[in-house]
Design brief:
199 residues; mainly alpha
């Protein structure tokens, strides 16, 4: 019995390989745009918080109570911390000039970095630290506040602070600033090439 080569098998394999590469490219493209969208929306969350606390647009910060009106962006939140191991520390920090400035700088810096798609590693580190402090201030593990009332915590560990922190880390890890952002141009700057932590 003679063995015959079947020329149609090789093109079929090539066609399948080509299709797989094409699907992978499309999947990569879709993933890149999804991550870029997540980056932009998350950036707007931080930018909006900065703008509302600065100008008092009447959402989380009442009109006339913005930072530009003499209000404190941290006093309202930190002065009401009533659970967790750092409640007295946070209350003592409430409304301090250094606390207000550092908090607002973090909101602005993280928001601008995410929106532009640059310095995502720095934004991830700063944002994770900010979210950790806010998580400790809210202290989700507590079932009751210091006065004995129910804390209304819905989950003792996983809350939106944790979700934001993981989101920031993922955006930096996957270079989400390269799509719909300035990430590629940023990464080509000599200082960024020499110091990858700036990426």
């Amino acid at each position: 019995m003679a063995v015959h080569e079947h020329p149609h098998r090789l093109p079929t394999f090539r066609a399948r390989l080509s299709l797989s590469v094409g699907e992978a490219a499309r999947t990569h493209s879709v993933s890149a745009y999804v991550l870029a969208s997540l980056r932009l929306v998350t950036g707007f969350v931080f930018l909006w918080a900065f703008l509302d606390k600065t100008f008092g647009f009447g959402y989380a910060t009442p009109s006339g109570k913005g930072w530009t009106d003499g209000g404190s962006p941290t006093k309202g939140f930190l002065s009401h911390v009533s659970a967790g191991p750092m409640q007295s520390t946070f209350r003592s920090w409430a409304g301090d000039t250094w606390t207000d400035r550092l908090f607002m700088l973090a909101l602005l810096g993280i928001g601008v970095a995410l929106t532009a798609g640059v310095a995502l590693r720095i934004a991830a580190a700063a944002g994770t630290a900010l979210m950790a402090f806010m998580w400790i201030a809210e202290w989700p593990p507590a079932k009751h506040l210091a006065d004995g009332t129910a804390s209304m915590s819905t989950n003792p560990f996983a809350d939106y602070h944790l979700v934001y922190a993981i989101t920031l880390i993922a955006l930096a890890a996957f270079a989400a600033g390269d799509t719909l952002g300035l990430g590629r141009a940023w990464s080509r700057l000599p200082i960024v090439r020499d110091h990858t932590w700036l990426r």
